[in-house]
Design goal:
Order of helices and strands: EHHHHEEEEEEEEEEHHEHHHEEEEEEHH
Family: Belongs to the choline monooxygenase family.
Subcellular location: Plastid, Chloroplast stroma
Number of strands: 18
Shape: globular
Bound molecules: FE2/S2 (inorganic) cluster, fe (ii) ion
Radius of gyration: 23 Å
Oligomer: single chain
CATH architecture of one domain: Alpha-Beta Complex
Cofactor: Fe cation; [2Fe-2S] cluster
Pfam families: Rieske (PF00355), Ring_hydroxyl_A (PF00848)
Organism: Eruca vesicaria subsp. sativa (Garden rocket)
CATH superfamily of one domain: Naphthalene 1,2-dioxygenase Alpha Subunit, Chain A, domain 1
Amino acid sequence: MMTMMMMATITPPSPELPSSKLTSTTTGYLKTSVSSVSQSARRRRLNSTLFCTRPPSSPSSRVFSACSISNLVEEFDPEILVERALTPPSSWYTDHQFYRYELDHVFYGGWQAVGYTDQIKDNRDFFIGRLGEVEYVVCRDDDGKIHGFHNVCSHHASILASGCGKKSCFVCPYHGWTYNLNGSLVKATRMTGIENFSLNEMGLKPLRVAVWGPFVLLKVTREIESDGSVASEWLGSSAGKLSEGGVDSHLNFICRREYTIECNWKVFCDNYLDGGYHVPYAHKGLMSGLDLETYSTTLFERVSIQECDGGSKSGGEDGFDRLGSQALYAFIYPNFMINRYGPWMDTNLVIPLGPRKCKVVFDYFLDPSLKDDEAFIKRSLEESERVQMEDVGLCESVQRGLESPAYDKGRYALVEKAMHHFHCLLHQNLKL
Ligand code: FES
Ligand SMILES: [Fe+2]
């Protein structure tokens, strides 16, 4: 059931509520014997085979597999403290049925960051996107009002708009039906003589849309609206800290980079949420720009914020300083990251494309004073690209390991508290 379109500007709440603070300390993994892990993995795969035998596209498969999905969800126990907890089983990262269930319960229920306000700065600006099976278009109409719609023609379901840019109306490329930017159908070609047909009833299906700071949010919801504000739903008590940390609208958009990665979307999130654990081993170049001794993680309701001071390289001999004196890495459940460091902010939107594939959209924003410094921008983007490619390698490696019969569940280190928090939030959304 579609809900009414809504556009809201979110005011960051204040004051901030108390939050827990974790200072990072690394502990060793507790080893689980290979044979017991393998047995557990085999047992789980057998369960999955027994219950999940229909093609994922079959509607009845969702009902058929409810029992096995429930079993998979309950394999992770959020009540167990991180010190003793096991990670979720590998089927959370590999199973087709689980993936489809996850789209419904994790992605279609809450606010999703889908773009930034500069993309719809002027009247008639629009952009499109896809989240799971949801095709959407966001636009600003002739009155300056922001709208979100399912990007699907009411005639025979063709995708209506493509790309981004400016349009005075949306003309379907298939048979020419034409919609206003407010979603109403204004022309249905060659429909003369068709009975019980009303243009008014064939408009685009609306989605809820909102703005917070520089971000455009969208909500695909099948639930009755809660009374909470969009800010409290999306950011909770972290909104004030993000605003104070320089996450705001004064930065200039520089560019977008997209990476398709052969891994489940959660593998990328997990990698982001390990409290800097992998940095000394996998990002040696980045390490010299960060003082990992100062790494800290703060947990909020649906947000975690990792912070770290700049390292020895900060403001080095040649004056190049991409990271600045402090870096802030905010994870907004379930799939959006805001990285604020030095004069830069970049955002990472992790879009699931299947159980073992995702796309990560990086948008880069820079302090206006440096927006014309091409050398600085080029070098910063090259450094960022190198780190990103290192992470791509790590994530694809983990996905292959998750699919191996040798692995089912792992352990957390204390620095990975944000990852554990992420998994607890997932469990909360996924439980039946
Ligand atoms: S599908 Fe859009 S006009 Fe036919
Ligand atoms: Fe990394």
